[in-house]
Amino acid sequence: MQIKFWGTRGSIAKPGPSTVRYGGNTSCVEIRSDAGTLVVLDCGTGGHALGQELSARADGAAEGHLLISHTHWDHIQGIPFFAPLFVNGNKWDISGPKDLSQSLRAALAGQMEHTYFPVTLDQFAATIRYHDLVEGSFSIGDIRVTTRYLNHPALTLGYRLEADGASIVYCCDHEPHSAAMASGELPIIGLDRRYADFITGADLVIHDAQYTAKEYAAKIGWGHSSVEYAVRVCREAGVKRLALTHHDPLRDDAAVDLIIDDVRLRLRDEGSSLDAMAAAEGLTLELRGDSDRSYGQSKIYFSAKAALDDSTFAHPVLLYVADSATRSMLAEAIAIEGLPTRIAANGDELQQMMLAERPSLVIVEHAPPQIDGLETARAIRQIEAAGTVQVPVVLVASNDHHLDANRGVATDWLVTPVSMSYARTKIRAWVLRSACRWIRAQLPSEERKRLSILHDLAILDTPPEERFDRLTRIASAAFGVPIALVSLVDSERQWFKSCHGLQMHETERDLAFCSHVVKSCEEMVIPDTLLDDRFADNPLVVNEPRIRFYAGAPLILDNGTCIGTFCLIDTRPRELHPDEMAILRDLRDLAIEEIKRKPA
Questions:
Q1: What CATH number does residue 52 fall under?
Q2: One domain, residues 273 and 315
């Protein structure tokens, strides 16, 4: 992958004679994969020069993808001046974090209202598709993207991009979860350890480093990292290269030189292999990775494009906080975010609420002996173990010292004192996390070979055939299910050679239950999709055909390749008994014989 920096300044553009070498424009980075896929990370004022260059190139940047970390001005001010968006025939995808109250498109349109700007968002001539993202993963051509919420006063996503055997992580803006970590001298623990897991093993991390540790002491809560923290967390995570960015507008080139010289000296004295640099406008880097490298980091999260509607946010937030000031502030923050709130007077009442409603979030104060939040959280986990409820539990406390020892109890900690804006952002992130119970299947280890064998069968997109339809009709009648399918999993879709009881003939592969079967090459039975975090918020569950039961048997050829499934679907929960499973295998085997037998 090739990386070029077009904007490296933070907060406000600061061009001038003292910022010539590192640049005065705000955040914007260009990424290109070896296959030519174009991704732009943020579009601050640096986006203007990038847009001009892209438009001057031979292809005119006809297609591209813009990933917005968050909608603070210094990360979106270049959008109204980004030339490719004004060219008729161009196609661009703009993606960024989903809000609870408005879409990404609405947020971007705000800075182009007539009060502030003469051209509206609707006057872009290019075809633009907007995507609201949550924490998860998705693909842009040959680039795999994983998103993770960062610690910032606005809902902000960090992006991990993986392609060509290399990985890049973009974390701008981000603040240490624990202010004590800013010194870079303490071990990385708690929520900062979870953050380190996100960047682990990256070839390049582009990291917010607006302050020094000394400066940060007066900027706690502003949403930015110290240089020392960025270096320490990257060392802990085994990162190969670190590019410090989001330079403070008051920091001139000479000051940046002093910082990076000091960082390099410390790394050398410590014997660290981390290669650190200061991001500079015009700086171009090239990453060459191992083409056979697997991306374990990027394939274990929920889909970043999970389908969410208003009903997703109808579930209440339960609040059990003794301190009246904190309780009032949190209740107000929840209300501003448009979420219903239930306030519990004691632990027993909280548990009753847990059983009576499906909360999206539980916030409990940890202030023993008045309220032992850890014990309350443990009681909630016992309810979960009984299969009654699954919910994130956040503890409010004056410190997060208990976090590492109680990871399985507390989902997160809200350390007081905390501002209203910060509380709103964290609540939003927690609720969105709990709303997205849908995991995409990983790719099989030999996916290229599998697809080649599937395509060589020349069965995809062929007309319906009675020899297959007969089998799905029998399956529907034998099992009493409305839907039976012979599903073949292609690179971006699952296509149905036979689809009894279903009007559609294919779906996106990311939606496909069958993709999980293809990955494991094993049978899969889901008695109730709403009780399974892999599928509860899958669009095929939330919307038509509203799948509640699934049973799939893999279609495995003689050479061991799994090309799809013979599967059963019902709109109500049910079990599949061993003798029924045997019948499903028989029908699957008959389907395989038909696949191997070429039509006359």
A1: 3.60.15.10
A2: no
In this structure, the answer to whether residues 394 and 515 fall within a common structural domain is: no
User: Is the CB of residue 227 less than 8 Å from the CB of residue 211?
Assistant: yes
Q: Specify whether the CB–CB gap between 244 and 171 falls below 8 A.
A: no
Ramachandran region of residue 41, left (φ > 0), alpha (ψ -120 to 50) or beta?
Answer: beta
Final residue before a domain boundary, out of 406, 435, 464: 435
Quick one: DSSP state of residue 95? E
Q: Are residues 187 and 240 in the same domain?
A: yes
Structural domain including 482 reads 447-596
Q: Which of 435, 464, 491 is the last residue of a domain?
A: 435
Q: Which runs of consecutive H residues, i.e. helices, occur in 90-156?
A: 104-110
Q: Are 231 and 173 within one domain? A: yes
List the one residue out of 423, 394, 395, 433 whose CA is nearest residue 154: 423
Same domain, 514 and 582: yes
Quick one: 196 and 73 in the same domain? Answer: yes
Q: Which two tokens stand for residue 22?
A: 């590192």
**Number of domains making up the chain:** 3
Q: How far apart (Å, rounded) are the C-alpha atoms in residues 453 and 458?
A: 9
How many CA atoms, within 13 angstroms, populate the side-chain half-sphere of residue 184? 20
Residue 269 covered by a domain: yes
Considering the domain architecture, whether residues 259 and 323 belong to the same structural domain is answered as no
Minimal CA–CA distance to 482: which of 546, 398, 401? 546
* Domain assignment present for 292: no
User: Which token pair is 476?
Assistant: 């529907």
Q: Are strands 166-171 and 157-163 parallel, antiparallel or unpaired?
A: antiparallel
Per-residue pLDDT of the chain (600 residues; tens, 9 = 90+): 999 999 999 999 999 999 999 999 999 999 999 999 999 999 999 999 999 999 998 766 789 999 999 999 999 999 999 999 999 999 999 999 987 667 888 889 989 998 899 998 889 999 999 988 888 888 899 999 999 999 998 899 999 999 999 999 999 999 998 888 999 998 888 778 889 989 999 999 999 999 999 999 999 989 999 999 999 999 999 999 999 999 999 999 999 999 999 999 999 999 999 999 999 999 999 998 765 544 444 433 456 665 555 556 778 999 999 999 999 999 999 998 888 999 999 988 998 898 887 788 999 999 888 898 888 888 887 775 444 445 788 899 887 555 544 455 777 788 888 888 888 888 888 888 766 656 667 788 888 899 999 999 999 999 999 999 999 999 999 999 999 999 999 988 999 999 999 988 998 887 899 999 999 999 999 998 877 767 876 778 877 898 999 999 999 999 999 999 999 999 999 999 999 999 999 999 999 999 998 765
Sequence letter at residue 172: C
pTM for this prediction? 0.70
| Residue 294 placed within a domain | no
Both 522 and 421 in a single domain? no
CATH code, 374: 3.40.50.2300
Bridge partners of residue 496, in order along the sequence: 487
**In-domain check, residue 564:** yes
Compute how many other C-beta atoms are within 10 angstroms of the C-beta atom of residue 348. 10
Backbone angles phi, psi at 63, to 5 degrees: -135, 140
Secondary structure (DSSP) of 25-82? SBSEEEEE-TT--EEEE--STHHHHHHHHHHHSTTTT-EEEEE-S--SHHHHTTGGG-
